[in-house]
Write a sequence for this structure.
């Protein structure tokens, strides 16, 4: 490329810099080589600063600012243009005309110079004219599409719900007797206005959509002008501000109330009426996240990593459509059976009535005591048996006339693929050894001898078709497991936001392990004593047989009896060898267990993670997920209802655009999708739906979303 000659406007020079940046970012050309080709000599160390300005302000950020602004002389053609636009729009100010000339002619005119020209031409606005509305405009903002999520949150009233929970708690603290809450009343959040609290909550709420996984990213991912505009703060909050805010939130003890308030909000927003069996069906499961801390906290088996690690368990209850309604945090050594009823109770308390008739959960919640509790509460469950709890069909009570029925066929060939058999099974309570009879539906592939076992207390009178019971359980994969898979990478569900640990008075993990080892040692001692007693009796019997054989050696009449005694003695010797071998194994096993017990440090201190901060962030992640669900159900075309968050984020939420705010309206215009006409149609469809809803922001301004067409 040749060198540029002749006069060049600042905008033309900025456009050359833009071409150089595009060569680097899209073509992968070396920084110095790309800028040299466009007529510039820069150091590669200056490039990050230039790129940051370009990303923040577009071509505007590449304009030269050294030496101050230089105003140009207005030509006669420009004067004619000024007169024409002024006559067309008499309320145009000198500042607005300067901006128009800058875009139209690439000339920069000083405001005072423009005012003098308008005065000379007799086009200046009359003195005493009412002040015009203040207009805020930005071009090239990042993540302009996040205003679609903002619209969903406004329609659902998410931000205000969270803010109301915080403000209510602050009022409660102020009403407490002096001394009980003095320390909390000194927190900055207590003296913050409702508007500031709402903006900071929205900053935490929307940060995953901006690619920010944790608070630390307020230092590393910025600048993000779009986040400040979406939340209404204008300039995005800095790291220390958001870090202090998130440190103070857990001290208010709002995490549990926040879960319930948001759960009620979701039920109202999605118009769940609980009148049908499906709407009264819920899916409950655990999401286990690793906690990276040096403190000794409870551990659990992490299925994905296939390791026992320090963990925190987050239980979710989803509705029949797969929408997460309420999370519940527990230590990493918890199990599903312990959390089932607390999470059901929390949801029903939030809604204000009993709504859970059918609970679907995984085999981790399998326990006879859990089944009995469901019956006591007049609720129904569906789960599966572990594979080691049955050997064959003989373990089940096959009802008279029952047979394998068709369950699933190949959609293309119509060939039968799976069969089911409706029967019963008796389970044994491990505590009192009493039997418990449950309904079981066996599911197997055609031609296979192995089968899965679906367990339920839904009677045949309530649901005679076993296929529907099986389908309820299999829907768990679509309605819950897929929800976890979508939330984990896109909303950073597995990120831990707080590792503050609280020392426990007793180490229940050590206590439980000691008790288990003592029970095993006791059982092994009983087995050892039983084996020793058998050996003693066997030796006595063997001695008597040997004596009897010796005394009958010369008696011909007792030869047959003697031969039988010899055969029996050999069997006893073999039995004695086996018993002695078993005794040795028992002694070795007992030694191992005793060594394990002696090796346990019973003075070890147990800590538990203070989950309040993490639970608040989990609630906000869930709220953002449900806002995305709201977008798909109310604004997007029907074929995108099952798309995951990442897909819609890449199509809509990350799209750049422009921002304009007046005293009455906030207008966001998404950039045109030049390469994806289908995405252009989707964005236009969404913007029309949002505008038809006539949504109003907390500031009282109407929000309008548009898509550029040219």
């Amino acid at each position: 490329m040749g060198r540029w000659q002749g006069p060049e406007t600042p905008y033309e020079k900025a456009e050359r810099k833009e071409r150089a940046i595009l060569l680097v970012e899209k073509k992968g050309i070396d920084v110095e080589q790309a800028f040299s080709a466009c007529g510039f000599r820069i150091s590669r160390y200056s490039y990050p600063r230039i790129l940051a300005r370009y990303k923040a302000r577009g071509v505007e950020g590449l304009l030269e600012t050294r030496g101050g602004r230089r105003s140009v002389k207005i030509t006669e053609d420009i004067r004619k243009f000024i007169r024409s636009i002024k006559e067309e729009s008499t309320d145009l100010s000198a500042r607005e005309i300067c901006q128009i000339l800058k875009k139209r002619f690439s000339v920069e005119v000083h405001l005072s110079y423009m005012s003098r020209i308008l005065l000379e031409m007799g086009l200046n606005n009359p003195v005493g004219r009412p002040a015009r509305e203040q207009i805020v405009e930005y071009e090239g903002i990042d993540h302009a599409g996040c205003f679609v999520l903002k619209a969903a949150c406004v329609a659902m009233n998410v931000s205000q719900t969270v803010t109301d929970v915080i403000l209510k708690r602050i009022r409660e603290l102020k009403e407490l007797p002096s001394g009980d809450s003095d320390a909390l009343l000194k927190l900055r959040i207590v003296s913050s206005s409702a508007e500031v609290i709402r903006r900071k909550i929205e900053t935490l709420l929307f940060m995953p959509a901006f690619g920010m996984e944790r608070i630390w990213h307020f230092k590393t991912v910025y600048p993000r002008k779009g986040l400040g505009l979406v939340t209404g703060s204008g300039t995005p909050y800095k790291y220390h501000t958001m870090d202090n805010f998130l440190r103070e939130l857990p001290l208010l003890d709002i995490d549990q109330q926040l879960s319930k308030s948001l759960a009620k909000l979701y039920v109202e927003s999605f118009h769940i009426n609980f009148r049908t069996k499906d709407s009264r069906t819920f899916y409950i499961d655990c999401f286990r996240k690793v906690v990276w801390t040096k403190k000794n906290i409870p551990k659990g088996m992490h299925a994905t990593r296939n390791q026992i690690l320090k963990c925190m368990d987050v239980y979710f209850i989803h509705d029949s459509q797969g929408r997460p309604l309420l999370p519940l945090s527990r230590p990493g050594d918890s199990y599903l059976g312990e959390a089932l009823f607390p999470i059901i109770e929390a949801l029903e308390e939030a809604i204000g009535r009993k709504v859970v008739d059918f609970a679907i959960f995984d085999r981790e919640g399998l326990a006879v005591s859990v089944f009995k509790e469901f019956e006591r509460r007049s609720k129904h469950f569906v789960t599966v048996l572990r594979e080691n709890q049955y050997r064959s069909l003989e373990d089940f009570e096959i009802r008279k006339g029952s047979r394998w029925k068709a369950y699933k066929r190949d959609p293309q060939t119509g060939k039968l693929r799976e069969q089911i058999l409706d029967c019963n099974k008796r389970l044994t309570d491990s505590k009192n050894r009493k039997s418990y009879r449950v309904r079981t539906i066996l599911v197997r592939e055609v031609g296979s001898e192995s089968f899965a076992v679906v367990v339920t207390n839904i009677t045949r009178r309530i649901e005679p078709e076993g296929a529907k019971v099986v389908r309820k359980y299999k829907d768990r994969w679509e309605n819950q497991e897929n929800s976890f898979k979508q939330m984990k990478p896109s909303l950073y569900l597995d990120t831990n936001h707080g590792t503050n640990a609280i020392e426990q008075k007793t180490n229940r993990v050590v206590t439980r392990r000691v008790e288990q080892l003592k029970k095993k040692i006791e059982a092994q001692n009983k087995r050892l004593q039983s084996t020793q007693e058998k050996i003693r009796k066997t030796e006595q019997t063997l001695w008597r047989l040997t004596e009897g054989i010796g005394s009958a050696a010369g008696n011909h009449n007792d030869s047959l009896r003697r031969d039988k005694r010899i055969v029996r003695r050999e069997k006893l010797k073999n039995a004695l060898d086996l018993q002695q071998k078993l005794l040795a194994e028992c002694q070795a096993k007992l030694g191992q267990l005793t060594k394990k017990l002696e090796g346990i440090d019973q003075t070890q201190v147990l800590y538990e993670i203070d989950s309040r901060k993490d639970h608040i962030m989990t609630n906000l992640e869930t709220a953002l997920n449900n806002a995305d669900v709201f977008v798909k159900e109310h604004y997007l075309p029907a074929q995108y209802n099952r798309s995951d968050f990442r897909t819609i984020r890449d199509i809509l939420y990350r799209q750049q655009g422009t921002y304009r705010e007046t005293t009455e309206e906030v207008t966001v215009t998404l950039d045109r999708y030049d390469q994806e006409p289908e995405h252009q149609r989707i964005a236009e469809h969404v913007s029309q739906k949002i505008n038809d809803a006539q949504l109003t922001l907390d500031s009282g301004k109407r929000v309008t979303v548009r898509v550029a067409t040219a």
Observations:
- The chain is about 45% helix and 15% strand.
- Residues 10-62 form one domain.
- Confidence is low (pLDDT under 50) at residues 1-6, 67-71.
